[in-house]
Amino acid sequence: MATGSHTHTATSALMRGCGSRVISGPLSAQIGMLAALRPHERVLVLLRLLGGEQRVELARGAVEAV
């Protein structure tokens, strides 16, 4: 879907509380809410997994705003 420039634009638009989609890795296509921006290009995302909301820490480049 995205070229490098589109991915950069999407990840730079991430803000706490916004909807987000995982775009790479084993959780690809999962949609959740961005809970926090972390140091070292990491983000904390709340995803509905395993019967409840789970906090998952991912690389910032693995998530885009929706």
CATH class: Mainly Beta
How much is the radius of gyration in Å? 11 Å
Distance between the termini: 14 Å
- Low-pLDDT runs of 5+ residues are 1-11
| Number of domains as seen in the coordinates | 1
Secondary-structure content class: mainly beta
Could you give the order of the helices and strands? Answer: HEEEEE
Question: So, CATH architecture?
Answer: Roll
Number of helices: 1
Mean pLDDT across residues: 86
Biggest pleated-sheet summary:
5 strands, antiparallel
Taken as a percent bin, the fraction of beta residues is over 45%
Shape: globular
CATH topology: SH3 type barrels
Instruction: Write down how many β-strands occur, each being a DSSP E stretch of 2 or more residues.
Output: 5
Strand order of the largest sheet: 4-3-2-1-5
The amount of helix comes to 10-25%
Key features?
five-stranded antiparallel sheet; about 15% helix; SH3 type barrels; 1 helix; about 70 residues; disordered N terminus; mainly beta
In short:
This protein has 66 residues and is mainly beta. The protein has a single domain, classed as Roll (SH3 type barrels), CATH 2.30.30. Helices cover 14% and strands 47% of the residues.
Describe the structure.
The protein is mainly β and 66 residues long. The protein has one domain: Roll (SH3 type barrels), CATH 2.30.30. Helices cover 14% and strands 47% of the residues. The protein is built from one helix and five strands, in the order αβββββ. It has a five-stranded antiparallel beta sheet with strand order 4-3-2-1-5. A hairpin with a 3-residue loop joins β2 and β3. The longest helix is centred in the first third of the chain and has 9 residues. The protein starts with a helix and ends with a strand. The N terminus is likely disordered.
